[in-house]
Amino acid sequence: MSTPRTIHEAPSAQRPSIALAIGIFLTAFAVLAIHAWQHLPFISDDALISLRYSERLLHGYGLTWASGPRVEGYTNLLWVLACSMLGALGVDPIDASRAWGFIGMGAALAAIIFAFRPHNMKQLLPAIAGAVGIALTAPLAVWTIGGLEQPFVAAFLAWALVLCFKLVDVPLPTWRNALPASLMLGLLCLTRSDGGVLCIAVALGLAMARGLNVTTFKLVFALAIFPILFGGGQVIFRLVYYDEWLPNPAHVKVAFTMDRILDGWTYVRQALPYLAGIFIPTIFTCILGLGLHEIRRHTLLFSVPLFIWIAYVTLIGGDVFPTHRHVVPTLICAGLLIAHLTKWAIAQSRAAHAGAWIVVAGMFAVTIVLTARDPEVQRAKEERWEWDGKVVGEMLQKAFGEMHPLIACDPAGCIPYFSKLDAIDMMGLNDYTIARARDAQFGRGVLGHELGDGKYVLDRKPDLVLWTLPTGMSVPLFASAQQMNADPAFHQAYRFVLLRSPPPNGLRCGIWARFDSPKIGVRNEAGRIIIPALFAASTEQTPAVLDDNGRLGVYTVRGQLASFKEFGPPPGTWRIRAEADAPMLIAARPIGGGDPIVDGLNEVTLTVPPSGAFYDFQFAPAGKNPVLLRNIVFEPLPK
Fold it and tell me: Do 468 and 506 touch, CB atoms closer than 8 A?
């Protein structure tokens, strides 16, 4: 009399070949590495937000993005902690994110190969089709080095599905047999705040594959153990540490509107044609697999999470980052489905085996061709403004770091990360107040770029304000900046100045500087008014630069005047001189032009009438050589 097998008793006629599995893994990983290398040095700006949390944690500031009330501006806790761990070992945070990227994506490929590991040379194709096939896709390659959590999502989802693989076949698995898969799903919940969607999808796929019975309910319950423990633990941590139920980005991004759904559908629709080399075989596998009893149950296990995730991505409005980031989980499911159908096909006949090789080769060729034509791939190769943020951020740190100014900026990743300055995120991902400045139109604009509160930003009196990109703009693009620009108080308090980074970059940055800032602005010392030359950096020909000692000034050359405009000293008589490294010509003119009221070498004397007046002040070298202007000094003269 025979008895049902448990999961541990599944027989194997021939042991899998470890050498063959390793060979396939090295091949797939090499394909992925070469493919990913082509997209360097791409890094996502949001990755730098996460890495700022990692870095501040290492420096003892906790899981925070800025000083003040704590805000959870990340949705990838495990990724942040993992990057901090490598950072604690001395690894640069960006290098740490890329190291984890290769580890995570490599682990996902290893899961597919493990599930379909060959016993002999004749069984090579399934693992090759699944692992190499997805390694050729752009989303896996780009987000291996993109700096965000997709590699962990891919790894934990792949291993969760693979560990559920045997749970489908064996009649009497115990609930303990589901715990390894549950652990993977729990880690997935810690990797992304919406990881629970994939957990539910995997559990539903397992339930549909096995059918509804007592054993299935026990397995589903067991699968939920670690997601509930880890996810619940993070909620408790969030309540205690941030005093919030939801992460801050949920307030900035989540809106269930028809506009969001249409945007999400557009996102999916635009991705699928360029991934047709993978998704056409995947759809064929789903259709054929559901009709074949031999592979129907595993087809359900892998396809249910695929379609649920596509529906979820459509519902939330897709994504704004290059190269179909949110398609990564579907590619993991697709790789498993393709490998599974290929395993069935090569077992049918020699002709089917040969035909499968031809089909897989064609799938690879189509994937390579379509990837090369994908505009999102070109976007990832061309998007380098985050590295402009490195140049600008490091310049701001050298120029102002010792003064500890507060900067308000639109690019909330690269500028705060590289400058190390305290910051205000003007789009709200990392700001409690702006994240809750939602109006009736919320959910109809660009995902994650809709919110703003210009009055709130002005009330905080930032010393520096940077709009749009790291190189800055004088014309606003996003909500906070538009509201600030419409406020006369902003233009009274701030001057738009231009900075130029040191060679070899020579990158120009336009930034708003607060004139009365106690940290970077005008100073009053014993009656003297000292104005940093920064405020005379008003044209592209006379930007503020750093000298060899890291001090900020304005280089002036013959024929290019440094102008400090529309300034009215208090009534009285003033001696005006330039603090510079060589003699300078100084002139005070009426606003808008005209003949000089006073001019002279090194210093001039200006009498301001009791009614007050405003002037334009101009500075130029007295000789042929360039001169670095550091400060403009107004000294009151006795009456």
Answer: no
pLDDT in tens, 535-556: 999 888 899 999 888 889 998 8
- Alpha-helical regions (H) of 124-257: 125-135, 138-145, 150-169, 179-191, 195-210, 214-223, 225-241, 248-253
CB atoms closer than 10 angstroms to residue 34:
11
End-to-end CA distance of the chain: 118
For the chain, the helix, strand and coil percentages under 3-state DSSP, each to the nearest 5? 55, 15, 30
Beta carbons of 64 and 53 less than 8 angstroms apart: yes
Measured CA to CA in angstroms, residue 216 lies from 120, 168, 169, 293 at distances of 33, 9, 12, 19
Any idea which residue has 């269930």 for tokens?
256
Quickly count: other Cβ atoms within 10 Å of residue 167's Cβ: 21
> Helix, strand, or coil here: 629?
strand
From 12, 27, 206, 24, select the one nearest 126 (Cα to Cα): 24
CB-based burial of residue 268 (10 Å sphere; 0-12 exposed, 13-18 middle, 19+ buried)?
middle
Q: What is the pLDDT of residues 256-271, one digit of tens each?
A: 999 999 999 999 999 9
Sign of CA dihedral 618, 545, 477, 410: negative
pLDDT, tens digit, 9 for 90 and up, residues 274-296:
999 999 999 999 999 888 888 99
Residue 383 CA: distances (Å) to CA of 94, 371, 387: 17, 17, 9
DSSP symbol at 194: T
In 3-state terms, what secondary structure has residue 383?
A: coil
How far is it, in rounded angstroms, from Cα 131 to Cα 111?
9
pTM of the full structure: 0.93
Report the C-alpha gap between 126 and 421 in whole angstroms. Answer: 51
- Phi first, then psi, for residue 542 (nearest 5°) are -130, 65
Q: 18-37 and 138-145 are packed helices; what angle lies between their axes, rounded to 10 degrees?
A: 80
